[in-house]
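(Structure overview)
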Amino acid sequence: MNKVIAMFAILFTAGFSLAYADGSEKESFASALEETLGHLHALELNLDDSKPDLATAHATHPIAELYSTMKPELQEHDKAFDAKFESALNGLADKTIGKPRNDAQKAIDEVKDLVEQARTIVVGEKLSSDSNFRLDLIKELVETAESEYEEAISDGKVKEMVEYQDGSAFVWRAQQIFYDIKADLPQDKASEIDEHMEELTSSIKKMASVTEVETHVDGIVHEIDEILGVESEEASLETYFDGIEHHLAEVKEMYAKGESDEALSHATKAYLDNYEFLEKPIAAQDKELMEDLEVMMREELRDMIKQGVSKDKVNSQIDSVLEKLEKAEELLSMESDEVYDDDHDEEHNEKGLHAEHVTAPHKQVKSGIKAQDVQCGEYLELVLKKSTGTPACVKSETAEKLVKLGWGTRQ
């Protein structure tokens, strides 16, 4: 992510900041409307497939599960419309189940029209068309879809069909919103969101593992957060390098076992959860190296897994990535040595404090200090990687995650 892209994202965010701030309190209402539209889509599909029981579930969910969250806002803004909206939702099942398809569609379309009227009345046209506000709605939809999917799937089979269809319908609705605003988004971010949307839809359709679905949801949320300027928790650079190494090792293991979906999930996490945080500092030292690694991890490795190439080719690609990563880590290690003292002293001088210089964990080990005796900076915890005993100094929140993932142990 070069400086031009970063600046574009900042300018994009600033352009919508006022409307977004005003809209945060109305997000819950708008989310309920979007879920209602998702249920209407699922209702249409089940009517087309002559599945009355499932159609009934989606016809009744808006009034049974969503209306109560919308009623207070509707009452505050327009009581007469609220009564009309409630009546339409209450009567939706009676007007669609067992009725001629054309008549059922007419009733569905009437509810869709009322949803848009409710949006205008409560949220307003300006906020409803705001790209940042709509990005947040996409986040809400895909995160809710993930929860529904997790509840619906077990061992690659659907155990709760209604929840499975909920998840699928909410992703469909998120895609519709995304397509509406795609042209307004930074091109690189839009491209990555689009890719994750397509893969998320495919994963749900083929009833993939919850982990795979979660990976693509996290990818969408991550890209949206970058557009919105939401700060994510950042660990030390070394932790990201270790994270890549961990996930690439998992890729080798899973792919060798024939578990391609799991291998693809780890390959995606190696790039998305780790390498993206390294792109900017690596580019500052060697832009060509940064771009090579991006292509090798984000495109080539993942394409190899999708295409089902031989295990040896995948392993060779990973080994090549690791070689280049080692070079990148050396460059960043040299750069951090040059800037650390000045930045560290300036920070503590401003606070009127004096603190001892804390050397990077791997350098402490190279100097003869045992891994378990490595000293971490203020507010950081020492975690030892289980597979290698390598030390890492990370924030407490990150340490908790690494322990839960089985990556390492706290000291």
